[in-house]
Amino acid sequence: MRVLPRPDLAEGPVRSLFDALHELHHRAGRPSLRQMAKEVGCSHTTVSVAFSGPAVPRWGLLELIVETLGGDPGRFHALWLAASADPTVPAAPPAAADHFPPPRQLPGDVTAFTGRDSQIADLDRLLAESATDATAVVISAVSGTAGVGKTALAVHWAHRVADAFPDGQLYLNLRGYDPDRPVSAAEALEVFLRALGVEGSAIPHGLDERAARYRTLLAGRKTLVVLDNARSVDQVRDLLPGTPTCQVLVTSRDSLPALVARHGAVRINLDVLPLTEAVALLSRLIGARAEAEPEQAVALAERCARLPLALRIAAELAAAHPAVPLSRLVADLGDESRRLDLLAAGEDDYTAVRTVFSWSCRLLPDPALTTFQLLGLHPGQDIGIEAAAALLDAEPVTAHRLLDTLTRAHLLDESSAGRFAMHDLLRAYAAEQAADRTDRQPALLRLLNHYLHTARRAAGPHDPWLAAEHSNLLAVAAAAVDISPEHTVELSVCLDRHLDTGAHYRDGLTLHGLALRAARARHDLRAEADALNRLGTAHLRTGSYTAAVDHHLQALAAHRESGDRAGEANALQGLGTLAWRLGRYEEARGHLEEALALHRELAGNIGEGAALYGLGTVYRQLGDYPKALDHQQRALTLYQERGDRIGQARVLNNLGTTLERTGRYAEAYDHYARALTINREIGNRVGEAVALTNLGSASLRLGRLADAADHHEQALPIYLETGYRTGQADALRGLGDVHLRAGRHSEALDQLGRAVELAHEVGEAEVETGALVDLGEAQHATGKSEDAADSFRTALELAQHNGDRYEQARALTGLGRLSQESGDRTAARRQWQTAAGLFDALGVPEASALHRLLDQS
């Protein structure tokens, strides 16, 4: 811990800001620059500059530092505004490049962009006005029918003004009118947070938390946000930055009146191109032919309803067939061209452009036409070359060539290197065309096989391919339920660890729920039981213990009915884990010992290590530390022999907890540190947080209060981001214990009270009982004796009911202290003697301190 040098400043708002910041750093235990930088997500130099002045730091950086130190962002924002208004203050340095590289997400500019001068002028005016009115985010809403060029205008203008946004340009196609499902606000925020430098495993779980993190990262930055193809204001609202330095450009087929009314958006309406601009676009795309046949160029523009998407497709067709006169291409539309006029009449825009699509597709070479139609079968948002090759039953090089052909025909976009996506109208049309193909079913099965086999070959749950294809795998699994339910079942099996260790718990609930439906449709009792087991675990991770127990009980019955002994062992293991979480330790021991016997009966079953690990935890809670250490050490050996690093990390955490309970604090710390290293190397975010929480506990035991607080403060955001509520309660308890030891009783009461409440809500008995005893200590320290007595008694009842002798002894110790202070020395001695007997039987270090207290009483 070091005292950071303060800037030498005259009295005024800037000095007030820096004085408050340094005081907050002192109250937080003076964490090092590197500790703060790690939490904030920037270099220690950036943090050092923020503390040393004299320039006022950017608000986004300052807010993160204040939150890291446990300060009040509202108070500091007021100080920051006052300091920023001081004309004598040097300008803050630009956004540090080492915080995260500015995102540059804009797609390529549009070739031969033509017209839209008035709309571009409107956008330029809004940008200029935003530079002089720094009170609100400027939001522009470009609306118009499908294919009218909304995206083209947005992307073209964004490229023109990119230099005005040095902190980056964010872009996302929200797929508001996708035939399957639009991109949700939560999914969009995940994409943007990744672009802003947040690791995937660190992205908050909840929508509100994601939106808050997003706005914090954009605070004070000059960033352009392009939200393309939005369906409603609900899809957009949480994606709006909270800082006037940003500008937002939204495109939609809807006029988005709520965005205008509630958020002050300025609407920019796009109609089809004026005839002169439509002809000019054709001329730029097909050159001299349009000039040589001007009347036919006008007719072709009219046939395409002056719709930019249709005009570009028509121009590509004309360019691809230079020997065919324009008059022939115009005639090919025939009477069907009347349907294009429906666009202007406000009728079904999909029906209206079908003519152009069908005309375009009729002129494709047969292999390209087949490719276009079969791509309509793909359920995901985009497709890679390997997946396309499987769908087409072709070599990857052939598939790539065909995808390029469709891209040149404007029927496909290369969304990123080697990945291709369709305009939503084209996807719907392709799916319609594929509906009656005789090879539809074989193509779908090839696609499903590709995803399943590649997922099985993935190098562990954190393979980059799994991360890249995450959304497609879920979409494929959902599509397979009614096509090939066995694929849904198998994807649920092979993606289970990816979803679990990556903290994709909600996706796990969805996928395993689909697998359950698929298994029942097949009348496959064994697969049904396996899916129930995985659903039980997913519910456990989200803190839904009642639902988890129900699913594991159903799984146990189904496994026994089907005669699946390995599945039966897994179900018993799940029930044992839940019984331990709920504080039913004897019940947990029974389940886990039965599971262990089954695993050993099935020699070589990988579940033996998990059963040993679980039993070690239960024996620790029952106070049998030698048995706990024996089981945990055997589990660790098994995991090491099998090279299972996830299992090793879990057991190291558990072993450390038992060592800590027996007073071997340095050894415990070493085990936790090893667990932290492994979890970080394999990307197990929740495991990392558990190790950090445990390191905080051991640091407190070793008297290193600042380190303890730092570990807990690193863990808590991970728990919040991943939705792991048990961990949240544990980290809050740890922070409360640090505050209690440091004499910050008010903070201790707040954190411990929240820990008790959350642990009780989840049903986490171990954490609730321990937090109640700690809360009683904090209440006693603040003179709230009656509240303390209630907390100690509640903890004692829980511990007695659960068979937790350690927490019984701690609760009795606290009650004895209250009895002593109230003058009832007989009751105090009786309570302390009972506690001492329990501590002695357990062999824990608390025994000697209590005996000294008895000797003095």
Automatic annotation (TrEMBL):
Family annotation (Gene3D superfamilies): P-loop containing nucleotide triphosphate hydrolases (3.40.50.300), Tetratricopeptide repeat domain (1.25.40.10)
Pfam families per the UniProt record, alphabetical: TPR_12, TPR_7
Record keywords: TPR repeat
Superkingdom per UniProt: Bacteria
TPR repeats: 529-562, 569-602, 609-642, 649-682, 729-762, 769-802
PANTHER family attached to this UniProt entry: HTH-TYPE TRANSCRIPTIONAL REGULATOR RV0890C-RELATED, REGULATOR-RELATED
Entry protein name: Tetratricopeptide repeat protein
Native source organism of the sequence: Streptomyces sp. R41
